Amino acid sequence: MPRHIRMPDTGEKIRVEGDRLVVPDQPVVGFVEGDGIGPDITRACLRIWDAAVEKAYGGKRKIHWCEIYLGEKAAGLYDGEYFPQEALEAFEDVIVSIKGPLTTPVGGGFRSLNVALRQDLDLYACVRPVRHYSGVPSPLKHPGKVDVVIFRENTEDVYCGIEFKSGSEENAKLAKFLREEMGADFFEDAGLGIKPISEFGTKRLVRKAIQYAVEHGRESVTLVHKGNIMKFTEGAFRSWGYEVARDEFGDVTITEEQLYNEYKGKQPEGKIVIKDRIADIMFQMMLLRPEEFDVLATMNLNGDYLSDAIAAEVGGVGIAPGANMSDHVAVFEATHGTAPKYANLDKVNPGSLLFSGVMMLEYMGWQEAADLITLAYPELITDGVVTYDFARQITGATEVKTSEFADALIERMRGGIDLEAKRKQQQEQLAKERRQREIRRLLEPMEEMIATGKVPTAVSDLMTRSLITVRDEETVEVAMHAMADNDVNAVVVEPDEGGQWGILTKRDIVTKIVNGGRNPSTTRVADIATRPVLSVPPETTIREAANILSGNQFSRLTIEQGGRVIGMVTEDDIFQTVEKFGWSVE
Ligand code: NAP
Hints:
By secondary structure, the chain is of the alpha/beta class.
């Protein structure tokens, strides 16, 4: 195959050292012009990004662009090949690239180029920041309250494409297996689809979302799921998400339960709150209380719906940016298509690609250049200098061409923007909003929880997470002090030699020590602890837990995950949840 991609003679490649992206001052960055309106918006955006970098760093930093060919332009160069192997290698080589929209050729068994790119480069996270820029038309009363970054899983879920057509041989085979061997029951003519959600896929996505939240000083990460209905896929996504937060980010995260129970609603400095919401409630919440949400981690399909819906709230479907990322390789892209009817008219809005470039600059650590664009943009829109799509929604606006919009934005950036003052203003505003949320939580914690969409569904919603543990060889007296000092009715006993966890309750003290006439200062915990404990996984529903407790003489369950006890739920917890939230929780 002919080779056409030329690395620029100047500039240095971005590289990965250990776990870190190392971006030189003169990096080589890839770009794909794209089809249809692609060349118009790419041309305009390259000029804007270069100008922002020039202005922010006074010539010390500069991007050296390397053109990568995909789509129609590639087909012209590579004998009809829309997705040349050379392009794939180049994306990996340069690590950071940005692309315009691509036409998916109709017929002929073509894979969508975008899907191919995601699969072949294992770009497992689709990242979509959605926020409002003042002046942009929106259907909301307070669009400024929306400021979220969605991390959507890109490789699993129903998009894996494991589907079997109704009436096909494969369908019949699978249906027979499901009915006869798995006890499943469904209508005769059902089409069948399989939705795999793995621990590996979930954890790498949630890890990326939490890392982003840490690096960008975000307040919370919300796991979006439908775990009340699909326990072993959606529910597992939620459990694995909490697990990765606890195991890998334990020092910088707390759960929402901890926020309310341990910290009484006051978010500790430097801690990110990990919470979860049921997908359908999340749609409501993004309309009613969008300010409560920050970084969202979702599976593929939920994230697909949610990212477009939230973008529409801020009038930003046409300007919503995006990126597809693996651990390090990242391809930033316009989220709209090629709008062929506007191709080469120099007419459309460059916003989506422009803000994808802002994300790219942030990813490279070039925040000052990114901020220049983010701060200059709303000034222009507020002045009514807009492309045709916004002009038709803003009375009295001045409609400009794509290239003219770029000129105006560059001029605005060059005119000077007081980055420090703007940042300070933004930080003060954020701190004010944060205080308001905190006051609401402090004053009416339960009402706040309900108002922000929290619905307890699984035992992990009610469990006590910060457990007090004692060891077998300690005396019962030590355990009693631990219960009294921490005001708890039970302590968890660390595993014995056989690896079994135990539990010791106040009731054990009454029955086995007081009533049994034993001395607490000489009796060892191991002598009276209950083993084995009644343990369930975190995704166990409240009803299942109630059922297990009803069938046993115990009044509490331990919650076990990965061979560790991570929490405890008592009859009292279940009673209180039902009393507060009502019994419609499943
Ligand atoms: P589209 O290209 O996104 O265009 C749909 C409509 O959205 C346009 O007619 C226009 O609305 C508006 N629009 C899109 N981009 C705009 C911009 N930059 N500024 C202002 N308005 C903009 O969707 P499509 O017509 O369904 O798809 C066309 C082709 O794009 C298809 O071949 C599809 O496969 C491909 N596609 C590629 C990507 C990608 O590469 N990421 C994504 C989606 C689709 P008005 O007509 O109201 O002005």
